[in-house]
């Protein structure tokens, strides 16, 4: 009887199988490590969860020291019903109990009974006025995608007279005041720098809930025509790049170079504690002109997702905006009131102009319906200042770029008059004046009636009011 030997795997096939298995193992291990879960509030990564005994001991020692100091200052005592928001581990709650605060609990997406219940900082499974003390560790509030809801929930579950303590990596005065604007239910008791878990400096903020909740967003800011720029915002002006004091002989070169020297506000401060992040491009032209070509590539956003508004009256650019996510096109011209606007058309070059697109005053002068004109191109203008006041609030971080070919001398005074200017955290302004002609030395462009001195005065007056404005190309 002849035995038929079973087929043997070749050495090559064995190597391939083992190599493939090894690659799969590496892939899944890496995937498990970088896996993140979007909680609807903030993103939780594998690094947020504590696993090693040494790390747990370090966390326990750190928070024991923190809570002992808070007890010594009478912000918390043994009878305080206490809550830890989104703790990295149960050691935060253990530390509270070790220092004598027995009635302490945590809330997190990752439940760990009996110390941590399932929930989130913005959706706490507790009744109103439940806690005497609420604690939020480093990065919990910073990473929140819903900071206003975060503040509302803290206000809801914290008893009047109770204390909310938050740790944050942000130590600049701008971020502190942004945090205080979020928690307008509370008053500031203390703010100090301490050593964090990794021995880096962090800020510890102690707030106390008042007897009356002011309510977020329930002030009259949108009705007010006056605005006040606080000192902590005015301090930023000193750190901006200097204005170009002398009129440049070659402005098309000088102003373009100046953009490289800009000191962005968001490179000097932490913008974490804001409700929304908004970029408004007034006179946007094409998407690649300044939104895609500059803002998306170069503006320091600190990993924040900005809502973008493109204000452009030229129909030639509308189609490309349809496919852009998080970009809202406003197909109008920014103006001082809602009305029809007209542009003088150069009939000799109309074909060339239409091919390139006619933006707000790009090749023509803007005229109101109050002017008598003959040869015109008509578009709709809208009250930009009023729109801004109804679109953003003081709890938002707002960046505005304005390039409106001379209309800035109408729009800026209206923004100041209505108080809308104070809603802008950073502004990039192109000021149009009778520049020297590139082609003809000694000759000026007659298109714009303003002088460079008037432009410089416009920039200086805005900075004096506390508005961080930059000279745009």
From TrEMBL:
InterPro entries per record: DUF7870, Methyltransf_11, SAM-dependent_MTases_sf
Keyword Zinc found: no
Membrane-spanning segments: 15-35
Molecular functions (GO terms): S-adenosylmethionine-dependent methyltransferase activity
Alphabetical GO biological process terms: alkaloid metabolic process; methylation
Keywords of this entry: Membrane, Methyltransferase, Transferase, Transmembrane, Transmembrane helix
Keyword Transmembrane appears in the UniProt entry: yes
SUPFAM superfamilies (alphabetical): S-adenosyl-L-methionine-dependent methyltransferases
Domain spans labelled DUF7870: 238-337, 382-472
Pfam family, any one: Methyltransf_11
All copies of domain Methyltransferase type, residue ranges: 112-166
UniProt cross-references to PANTHER family, sorted A to Z: METHYLTRANSFERASE (PTHR44843), METHYLTRANSFERASE FKBM DOMAIN-CONTAINING PROTEIN (PTHR44843:SF13)
UniProt-recorded name of the protein: Methyltransferase
Organism: Heracleum sosnowskyi
């Amino acid at each position: 009887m002849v035995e038929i030997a079973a087929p043997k795997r070749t050495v090559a096939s064995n190597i391939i199988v083992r190599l493939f298995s090894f690659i799969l193992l590496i892939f899944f291990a890496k995937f498990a490590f970088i896996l993140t879960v979007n909680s609807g509030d903030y993103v939780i990564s594998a690094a947020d969860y504590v696993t090693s005994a040494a790390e747990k001991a370090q966390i326990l020692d750190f928070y024991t020291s923190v809570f002992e100091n808070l007890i010594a200052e009478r912000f918390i005592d043994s009878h305080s019903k206490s809550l830890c928001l989104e703790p990295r581990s149960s050691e935060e709650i253990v530390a509270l109990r070790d220092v004598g605060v027995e009635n302490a609990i945590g809330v997190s997406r990752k439940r760990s009974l009996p110390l941590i219940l399932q929930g989130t900082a913005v959706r706490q499974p507790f009744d109103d006025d439940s806690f005497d003390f609420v604690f939020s560790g480093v990065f919990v509030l910073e990473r929140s995608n819903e900071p206003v809801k975060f503040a509302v929930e803290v206000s809801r579950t914290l008893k009047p007279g109770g204390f909310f303590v938050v740790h944050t990596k942000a130590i600049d005065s701008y971020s502190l005041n942004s945090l205080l604007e979020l928690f307008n239910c509370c008053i500031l008791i203390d703010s100090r720098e301490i050593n964090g878990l990794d021995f880096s400096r962090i800020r510890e903020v102690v707030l106390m809930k008042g007897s009356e909740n002011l309510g977020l967003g329930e002030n009259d800011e949108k009705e007010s025509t006056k605005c006040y720029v606080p000192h902590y915002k005015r301090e930023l002006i000193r750190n901006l790049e200097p204005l170009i004091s002398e009129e440049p002989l070659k402005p098309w070169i000088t102003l373009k170079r100046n953009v490289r020297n800009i000191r962005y506000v968001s490179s000097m401060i932490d913008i974490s504690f804001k409700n929304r992040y908004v970029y408004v491009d007034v006179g946007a032209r094409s998407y690649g002109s300044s939104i895609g070509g500059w803002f998306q590539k170069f503006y320091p956003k600190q990993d924040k997702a900005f809502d973008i508004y493109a204000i452009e009256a030229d129909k030639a650019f509308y189609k490309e905006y349809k496919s852009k996510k998080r970009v809202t096109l406003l197909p109008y011209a920014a103006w001082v009131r809602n009305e029809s606007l007209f542009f003088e058309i150069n009939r000799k070059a109309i074909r060339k102009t239409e091919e390139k697109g006619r933006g707000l005053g790009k090749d023509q002068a803007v005229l109101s319906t109050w002017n008598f004109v003959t040869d015109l191109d008509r578009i709709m203008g809208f009250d930009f200042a009023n729109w801004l006041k109804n679109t953003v609030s003081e709890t938002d971080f707002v960046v505005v770029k304005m390039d409106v070919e001379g209309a800035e001398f109408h729009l800026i005074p209206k923004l100041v008059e209505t108080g809308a200017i104070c809603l802008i955290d950073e502004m990039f302004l192109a000021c149009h004046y009778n520049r020297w002609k590139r082609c003809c030395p000694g000759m000026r462009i007659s298109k714009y009636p303003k002088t460079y001195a008037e432009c410089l005065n416009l920039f200086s007056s805005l900075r004096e009011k506390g508005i961080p404005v930059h000279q745009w190309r």
